[in-house]
Specification:
The modification N6-(pyridoxal phosphate)lysine is found at residue 80. The active site is at 374 (proton donor). It catalyses: meso-2,6-diaminopimelate + H(+) = L-lysine + CO2. Keywords: Amino-acid biosynthesis, Decarboxylase, Lyase, Lysine biosynthesis, Pyridoxal phosphate. The protein is α/β, with parallel strands linked by helices. The chain has 2 domains: 18-48 and 312-442, Lyase, Ornithine Decarboxylase, Chain A, domain 1 (Beta Barrel), CATH 2.40.37; 56-309, Alpha-Beta Barrel (TIM Barrel), CATH 3.20.20. It is 29% helix and 24% strand. It contains 12 helices and 21 strands. Strands 4, 14, 15, 16, 17, 18, 19, 20 and 21 form a 9-stranded mixed beta sheet that branches. It is globular. The termini are far apart. It binds pyridoxal-5'-phosphate. Pyridoxal-5'-phosphate binds at residues 78, 80-81, 99, 122, 221, 224, 259-262, 303-307, 403.
C-alpha cells in the first residue's frame, strides 16, 4: 500500500464538499455534476474544454453578502481577481463599487457602464493615461502610491481645475502568513508609503502642500488569501495611530480603507470566516483602535476580490492521459493547465478535483492532476485522492477557480485561452469567448 499524506475525505474521494463549491452545485444520481442547473457534460459538449464556469447567482449573492455584512462600509469588488463586462454589470447591479488598477480594467468597467463615482483606482506605477482617464471620468477615489505620482496627479488636476479625491496607500509593516508574491504590507516590497519610516506622513504633507488633491484618508491592503483577522487588527492599529497623529496636528482624515485579501477555502482543510463575522471583527478592531487613540471612527471600506469571484467559478477539463507511477501516485493529465490556472506554480495554490461527468468507483487513489504544458511545474491539483476508476475522456471539475485564473491566464505554448461561461437557472451563456488561433496568430505581424 502506498504511504502518502492524503487530505481528509469527509465527503468521499469524489464528493462535493459544499464549502469548496458554489451553492448551486449538485451531483445528479447519474453522477453528473451540475452548476446553476447546467450539467457540466452539456456545457463541455457545447463550449469544449477547458472552460471556466461562473455561477452568476453565487457571484451576485456574494456581492450581496458583503454589501449587507459591511452595510456601514463602502465595499469595492477587486476587479483584478476576474473582470469582464458581464461581471462589471453584476457588480454594478449589486450596488457595490469596483476596484481597478490599470487602464484596461478601468476602460472595461467604463465600457460596461459601471458608474465612475463607484470606482477606486489603484496601482503602484499608474501611467499618465490612467491618471488622465481617472480624472476625466471623475472616478470615486484614486489611491496614490508614490511621491512621483502625487506630483504628477497634482499637476494634472491643477491643469484641469479639478480636485480629485485621493487616499494614501500606507504600508503598515505586517507580513501576513501567505505566499511572498501576495504579501503587500511588509517594508521590503513595492506598494505604498511606509508608516514606520515617516514616508506616509510625508505623502500626506506633499498632498497638502500641492493644495489641489482632496485627501480623504488612508488605504491599507495587507495581501491576499489571509485567514482570520489577526493581521488586519495589527494593520488597523498602525493606520489608526497615524490618523491620530495627523488629527493631533489638526488634520483629521475622514476615511480608512482596509483593502481586501479575505481568504476562501480551496481544499477541505481550509475554512473561510463567515462574512458577517469578518465584518464584526474588522468593525470592532477599528472601534477599539480609535477609542484607544482618541479619534472618531473614520468611514471604512473593504475590497474583497477572491472572496466574491473565487467560489463562484470552477474549471472543467477533460482527461487526456493517465500514468500510474508505482509507489508514487497516479498522474492524470488534462487539456489545460498553467495557461488557464497559474496559481499552483506561481503561489503554491492548492485545489481539489472531482470527476464531474459520471458516477465513478474504485479504491481511493492518490492523484496529481497535471496540465498539458511543457513545464514540470504545470500542476493543477498537487495532492488529491480520486476513485481508481477515472479513465480517459472523463470530465474533471476544479472548484474555486473564479479568482486569479482567467485574469492571470496566458498563452504559454501558444495555447488559446478557454471561454468563460455564465450559468444561471439551467441556462448557460457565453460571457467571454475562447481564443482562436486566428486571435493568437493575428498578433504576430513579423
Ligand atoms: C488584490 C487587491 C485586492 C483584492 O484582494 P483579494 O485577495 O482578491 O481579496 C484588494 N485591494 C487591493 C489594493 C489589491 O491589490
Amino acid at each position: 500500500m502506498i504511504s502518502i499524506d492524503t487530505p481528509a475525505l469527509p465527503y468521499g474521494a469524489n464528493g462535493l464538499q459544499p464549502k469548496l463549491w458554489s451553492r448551486h452545485t449538485v451531483r445528479r444520481p447519474d453522477g453528473v455534476v451540475t452548476i446553476g442547473g447546467v450539467a457540466l457534460t452539456d456545457l463541455a459538449e457545447q463550449y469544449g474544454t477547458p472552460a471556466y464556469v461562473y455561477d452568476e447567482a453565487e457571484f451576485r449573492l456574494r456581492c450581496d453578502e458583503f454589501r449587507r455584512a459591511f452595510h456601514d462600509f463602502d465595499v469595492y469588488y477587486a476587479g483584478k481577481s476576474f473582470l469582464c463586462r458581464a461581471v462589471a454589470r453584476w457588480v454594478a447591479e449589486s450596488g457595490i463599487g469596483l476596484d481597478v488598477c490599470t487602464e484596461g480594467e478601468l476602460r472595461l468597467a467604463l465600457s460596461a457602464g459601471f458608474p465612475a463615482e463607484r470606482i477606486v483606482l489603484h496601482g503602484n506605477n499608474k501611467s499618465a493615461v490612467e491618471l488622465e482617464l481617472a480624472v476625466e471620468h471623475h472616478v470615486g477615489r484614486i489611491v496614490v502610491d508614490s511621491f512621483d505620482e502625487i506630483e504628477r496627479l497634482t499637476t494634472l488636476a491643477a491643469d484641469r481645475g479639478v480636485c480629485p479625491p485621493v487616499l494614501v496607500r500606507a504600508t503598515v509593516g505586517v507580513r501576513p502568513d501567505t505566499h511572498d508574491n501576495i504579501a503587500t504590507a511588509h517594508e521590503d516590497q513595492k506598494f505604498g508609503f511606509s508608516v514606520a519610516s515617516g514616508a506616509a506622513a510625508d505623502a500626506v504633507e506633499l498632498i497638502h502642500a500641492g493644495g489641489v488633491l482632496d485627501l480623504r484618508g488612508l488605504h491599507i491592503h495587507l495581501g491576499s488569501q489571509i485567514f482570520g483577522t489577526r493581521e488586519y487588527e495589527f494593520g488597523i492599529r498602525c493606520a489608526v495611530e497615524l490618523l491620530a497623529e495627523l488629527a493631533k496636528a489638526g488634520d483629521e482624515l475622514p476615511e480608512l480603507s482596509l483593502g481586501g485579501g479575505f481568504a476562501i477555502a480551496y481544499i477541505p482543510d481550509q475554512t473561510a470566516l463567515p462574512v458577517t463575522e469578518l465584518a464584526e471583527r474588522l468593525r470592532s478592531a477599528v472601534g477599539d483602535a480609535c477609542r484607544a487613540a482618541g479619534i472618531r471612527v473614520p468611514r471604512l471600506a473593504v475590497e474583497p476580490g477572491r472572496a466574491i469571484s473565487g467560489p463562484s467559478g470552477a474549471t472543467v477539463y477533460r482527461v487526456g492521459t493517465i500514468k500510474h507511477l508505482p509507489g508514487l501516485r497516479t498522474y492524470i493529465a488534462v487539456d489545460g493547465g498553467m495557461s488557464d490556472n497559474i496559481r499552483p506554480p506561481l503561489y503554491d495554490g492548492v485545489y481539489v478535483a472531482v470527476v464531474a461527468g459520471r458516477d465513478v468507483d474504485g479504491d481511493d487513489t492518490p492523484v496529481r492532476v497535471v496540465g498539458r504544458h511543457c513545464d514540470a511545474g504545470d500542476v493543477v491539483v498537487r495532492d488529491d485522492v480520486l476513485p481508481s476508476g477515472v479513465r480517459l475522456g472523463d470530465l474533471l471539475a476544479v472548484p474555486g477557480t473564479g479568482a486569479y485564473c482567467r485574469s492571470l491566464s496566458n498563452n504559454f505554448n501558444h495555447v488559446p485561452r478557454p471561454p468563460v461561461v455564465a450559468v444561471l437557472d439551467g441556462q448557460a451563456r457565453l460571457i467571454v469567448r475562447g481564443e482562436t488561433f486566428d486571435d493568437l496568430f493575428g498578433l504576430d505581424v513579423g
